[in-house]
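Below is one protein, fold included:
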Amino acid sequence: MFKTIIALLLTTSIIACPYQFESQNLCVDMEWTNGPFDGAPSNFEAVVYDKDSGEKIAPENLKVYVWMMMANGHQHGGPAIEWAYGEDQVIDGTAKFFMGRMKGYWQVRFELNEEIVAVDVELKK
């Protein structure tokens, strides 16, 4: 019985949080299902969840977009991401990135109540 209680405590108290909205105790996890590619549509799934309980949530005021971080220190937005909540509050998204001759890298950004979580994108050729 004691081992069961310890195992239960360990599994419920340690929830991975790859990216966190610090002020809101929420996490974001994102996985590419196709890509990410340079110049072609790329698909991903993401979830927002409570850091303590692990419960998935679907915030109505969430924004998801791409952002370019330039090597010279400048930064700017990019093409719109098509996204929607699918089954079980999972975000289904499609993004298209283009590097051309630009030096820098792209990010997928999740913004909630003016707080931003940025996920760096490593494009496949």
